[in-house]
């Protein structure tokens, strides 16, 4: 469908279908999408067994625990569907690539899964292609690794091509809904601002830009600066946001931001902090505070932390064992809301959805 046809379909849907029916249709679509990615998640261990002989098919104990988290998945998708049908963000956030396109990438995902299995088995986390290896010196030491054991870490176009698909498989098709947890509080803050036209927004560690796109679709008139430390991922996000107006792209280290003091009204990130050593996490918050104007808003979505939802702690403990995430355990033990208040953000708000949490707060006018 062309963009104009899609726009017409959207406005017809939103103006003529009763809200309750919209809600049910959207929720059904989201559950179907989740099933589609869950099926791929269940298939991957079978390919791993077939090609490597390693049996990582989940045992009954794990599946029983995972079953508990299913209610949380449904709750998140319900809440996300309601936000769409009530216009908190537009229905166009659901327009992603076709199922055919996703499935045609699946063989590459399987192949990468086998390489990931080998790295996990051999405990190798610094294995790079010659091109990625040449670029390593441009990155901080903690970043020079195969995060998640993925091929080339965050350092190649091939890795950027598979990233979103792999994350959706990991989270049973809920990653986008988790990312969108940040939109309602962001919107509430922006609604309180009289000078919307002058607002400047900064995104840190944007990855391949799923959330950047949702932010642009929700606030098309606002200026968004999208940053990431990875050259390859930044190129991918540029492609992803092709055609969007008022977007700037910049390769930047979130712990050493190339912006002057008090130059943004809003700073946010998604799934960034859990990948950083504690010292870098603190620097990123200090830098965010520095570049924010007084009264500015700072928010993040990231993984749950221990104790946030005790019945889901099992997932936080198993994740870093299966995937190379060297700073994750430390992340889960240090509540981000405490770091937010230690950094002197005030009026903190928290929200949770499936395996993620949202934290946001305001920079005090006096700081
Ligand atoms: C798990 S990915 C999250 C990407 C994206 N925000 C998302 O929602 O999927 C982490 C991202 O943080 C980036 N990153 C890691 N350290 C960074 C730093 N110091 N400054 C900026 N980006 C960083 C990585 O390149 C990667 O794109």
Features of this protein?
367 residues; alpha/beta; Rossmann fold; 14 helices; 14% strand; binds S-adenosylmethionine
Distance between the termini: 49 Å
CATH class of the largest domain: Alpha Beta
> Regarding quaternary structure, how should these chains be classified?
single chain
Q: What is the name of the CATH superfamily of the largest domain? A: Vaccinia Virus protein VP39
In this entry the ligands are:
S-adenosylmethionine
Structural class: alpha/beta
State the shape. Answer: globular
Strand content: 5-15%
Number of strands: 7
Number of individual domains = 3
Measured as a percent range, the helix fraction is 40-55%
**Which whole number gives the mean pLDDT?**
93
From the 3D coordinates, which CATH architecture of the largest domain would you assign? Answer: 3-Layer(aba) Sandwich
Radius of gyration over alpha carbons?
20 Å
CATH topology-level fold name of the largest domain: Rossmann fold
